[in-house]
């Protein structure tokens, strides 16, 4: 046994803090580029997966595609003693609702829930999209391979389910295949509506949309750069909360941003060869994705995607024009890269699914004192809490202190005015919750 491991047995709770966990490396090593390639190929071979395409055929159209996604989740579940609850979630979208819905259509999502052992009703979600499109958003006839947009994200989600279904987690994980994305985010909207009705406690969603292209329209080729999009603050905040920010800060510290920082930090720890780029915005300029319906409802959600998009390979009829081959075809997907971004998801799903709930109420104080004071609501079954802080201009939580299983703490000599602060809960297994930005003022 390694010396460090022996020390860990004696100092169990302490030595886990800030250390890595072998299971996370195991998870990374099990993600397969070959299987992702096979699944993307299968999805491309459905010809089109347009939301309004054929639903009867077994070989072509959105119906065949979603039944295949369900059958893959079912197969994975069979291999893990029925550890996944696989189901469809559907809503009828009327043609009056959008110019991109030329006829009434059932938008059907597929989901697989891996039930948590301690917190079965808390969910961390990974999503990809089943549907695809070409140049005309309403063309549901032409071939629309959507290999990168977004068979890559869907295949990554299925692969994450394959790998993680071999483990047991405290929290539930949902693997989600959404539809209706290209017609106006209808699948995500339907799913969120149903989640609200069921009162789901959602830790957050990782929306994967285009995780397979490494050759950018900007001429840059990189198989390590990728982007994490997160909105600054939830659109559901109250007028009072918005006003309070002027005095207490928090403009760049909403719940989705904390989720983005969590993913960023975990990648830096376990996959230092990667280059995660935190992008401080909801999504690309003027464009959308399926994390947005979740954000709209006040849930934390981020978009994980390639850094260098190629616009001749998105939403394009397959054709050659002026010597340029247009189309989102299989040949342009880099499966080793898709595997890496799938690993990014898998290690973060696992880390959060193994982590305790974050403290809900976190108060901060220490006005006109040379120290920062904190108080928070305790979380059952944790080994303690970690206070984080950073320069106000830094994007990452650069400093931290593990403070044990207490519900208040004073950071002596740290002036409140000069930093931003947050608190996380650390489980007995060493896994950590998302950082919570203080949401109350200490009296
Ligand atoms: Zn798209």
From TrEMBL:
GO terms for cellular component: extracellular region. Residues 109-304 form the Peptidase M28 domain. It holds the Pfam family Peptidase_M28. One of its GO terms (biological process) is proteolysis. It is found in: Secreted. Gene3D superfamilies: Immunoglobulins, Zn peptidases. Its main location: secreted. Keywords: Hydrolase, Metalloprotease, Protease, Secreted. This is Peptidase M28-like protein. It comes from Arenibacter echinorum. The lineage of its organism: Bacteria, Pseudomonadati, Bacteroidota, Flavobacteriia, Flavobacteriales.
């Amino acid at each position: 046994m390694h010396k460090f491991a022996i020390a860990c047995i004696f100092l169990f709770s302490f030595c886990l803090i800030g250390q890595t966990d072998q299971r996370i490396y195991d998870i990374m090593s099990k993600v397969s580029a070959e299987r992702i390639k096979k699944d993307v190929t299968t999805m491309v071979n459905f010809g089109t997966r347009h939301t309004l395409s054929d639903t009867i055929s077994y070989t072509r159209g959105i119906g065949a595609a979603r039944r295949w996604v369900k059958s893959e989740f079912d197969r994975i579940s069979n291999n893990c003693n029925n550890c996944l609850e696989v189901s469809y979630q559907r809503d009828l979208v009327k043609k009056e609702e959008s110019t991109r819905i030329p006829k009434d259509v059932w938008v059907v999502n597929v989901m697989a829930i891996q039930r948590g052992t301690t917190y079965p009703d808390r969910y961390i979600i990974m999503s990809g999209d089943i549907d695809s499109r070409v140049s005309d958003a309403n063309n549901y006839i032409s071939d629309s391979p959507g290999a990168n947009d977004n068979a890559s994200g869907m295949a990554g989600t299925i692969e994450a389910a394959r790998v993680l279904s071999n483990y047991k987690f405290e929290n539930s994980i949902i693997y989600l295949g959404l539809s209706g994305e290209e017609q106006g985010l209808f699948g995500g909207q339907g799913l969120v509506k149903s989640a609200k009705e069921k009162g789901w406690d959602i830790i957050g969603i990782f929306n994967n949309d285009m995780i397979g292209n490494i050759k950018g329209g900007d001429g840059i080729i990189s198989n390590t750069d990728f982007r994490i999009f997160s909105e600054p603050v939830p659109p559901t905040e109250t007028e009072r909360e918005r006003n309070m920010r002027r005095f207490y800060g928090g403009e760049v510290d909403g719940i989705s941003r904390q989720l983005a920082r969590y993913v960023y930090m975990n990648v830096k720890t376990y996959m230092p060869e990667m280059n995660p780029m935190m992008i401080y915005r909801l999504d690309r300029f003027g464009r959308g994705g399926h994390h947005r319906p979740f954000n709209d409802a006040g849930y934390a959600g981020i978009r994980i995607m390639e850094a260098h998009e190629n616009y001749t390979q998105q939403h394009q009829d397959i054709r050659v024009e002026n010597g340029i081959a247009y189309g989102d075809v299989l040949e342009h997907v880099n499966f080793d890269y898709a595997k890496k971004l799938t690993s990014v998801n898998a290690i973060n799903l696992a880390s959060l699914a193994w982590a305790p709930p974050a403290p809900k109420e976190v108060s901060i104080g220490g006005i006109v004192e040379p120290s920062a004071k904190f108080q928070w609501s305790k979380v059952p079954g944790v080994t303690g809490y970690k206070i984080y802080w950073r320069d106000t201009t830094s994007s990452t939580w650069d400093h931290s202190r593990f403070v044990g299983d207490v519900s208040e703490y004073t950071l002596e000599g740290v002036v409140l005015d000069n930093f931003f602060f947050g608190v996380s809960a650390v489980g007995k297994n060493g896994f950590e919750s998302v950082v919570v930005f203080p949401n109350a003022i200490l009296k």
